[in-house]
Amino acid sequence: QHYEQLREIFCGKPVSIIIDETTDKKAHSVINTFFSYQNQTKLISVDFISQVNNVTVGQLVLKTLVEWEISFTYSYLIVSDSAAYMKKSVREILQPVMSQIQHNTCCARIIQLISLNSQDTQQLTFRFMPLPNTTR
Prior knowledge:
Helices cover about 30% and strands about 25% of the residues.
């Protein structure tokens, strides 16, 4: 029943895609895929994969869109961390098929790398600067 409710919300719609790679307790790679449409964001897929790279991520996104009957011709926003393989996946796998796709990366991975490289994470401070208000 939950799956059918999700299909009613997202099937065939111009969704935003949020994708994130993590590991489970046994260090297996897991790709979580979320769809967002009209202020509703839901986890729609949890995939365990043996190798995480630009090709496997790109194939997973394409497979998921086909399963949910979502056209490749919509303008898409895909959100991921800033890992190199995620950027390469969008650039080399998804953009050739979905020319309208826009990739927005978050800074979570960068902050994680900084904190891992910090000698003393308690002394690590971040200063956030206000961004200029611009119109595109």
